[in-house]
Each structure stands twice: as C-alpha cells, then as structure tokens.
Specification:
Layout: H1 2-15, H2 27-37, E1 42-44, E2 52-57, E3 63-69, E4 75-83, H3 87-97, E5 99-102, E6 105-110, E7 113-121, E8 125-132
Antiparallel strand pairs: 1-2, 2-3, 3-4, 4-8, 5-6, 6-7, 7-8
Length: 134
C-alpha cells in the first residue's frame, strides 16, 4: 500500500511541475524535450489554418499545454491550462525559479531577453502564459 501511495505522489508531482520556458526553441526541440521530460503529457495532432502550434495534454484532461509557433516553427509563446487545484503548486514553483513582478506575475531573464509569466484565473481553470516582454 505504501508503494502505491508513494507512486501516486510521484506521479502527481510530475503533473504539477511544468514551468519550463521553451520560448525560442524550434518545434522539433520542444517535441524532444516533452518526450524526454514529460511522458505524462501526450502529444495531440492538431490542424488549424490560423495558428501553428503543438498541443499536449494529460490522460485526465486536467492539463493542456500549447506551444504557439511562428512560420519558421520557432515557439513564440506558451499557454498552459490546468485545473484550479494546481494553481498553488504553480505559484510556489514559479516563486522558486523566476523573479516575481506582481500578483501572479513573474519575469524570466534569459539570453538577454525578458519573458513574462502570468497566471490568470478562469471560471474552471487557470491559464498560464509565457511570452517575450514587449
């Protein structure tokens, strides 16, 4: 029984720890990163004439991760949609790896650029965006 509980805790901790800024990477590198680091998220095939993006979600549909790509297949922003129950874990995670810049806002300074990370509350979920500072 202890092994099952420990396994459940480890699996849940994997679900709650997506905070990596992958803006600037090309689509192939993102796919490799996700395959190597987030096996709990499944790649979904998407067809959209307006936007080019990669989509990942978990089997319970409590998390969806979108990587928006430009015409050269380079990620220009990320959107992570998850259950409200995961919000506090995300705030703690972001507080530990990024510089806080306001309520539910952080800045990631990388390669001479600033990237804004923001959590917005929706009715049934929270939406996390990561994009270059404008």
């Amino acid at each position: 029984m202890r092994i099952i509980i420990l396994y459940a805790i480890l699996m849940l901790s994997n679900f709650c720890t997506y905070g990596q800024n992958l803006v600037g990477l090309n689509g192939r590198d993102i796919q490799k990163y996700m395959k190597d680091n987030h096996k709990e998220l499944n790649s979904e095939k998407v067809i959209n004439d307006r936007f080019k993006y990669l989509k990942y979600s978990d089997s319970s549909n409590s998390q969806t991760l979108l990587f928006f790509l430009n015409n050269d297949s380079v990620c220009n922003s990320e959107r992570f949609i998850c259950d409200m129950s995961l919000k506090q874990d995300k705030v703690k995670e972001f507080d530990s790896i990024y510089k806080k810049s306001g309520n539910n806002r952080w800045v990631d300074h990388r390669d001479g650029k600033n990237y804004l990370i923001e959590i917005r509350d929706e009715k049934w979920s929270c939406v996390i965006t990561i994009e270059p500072e404008k």
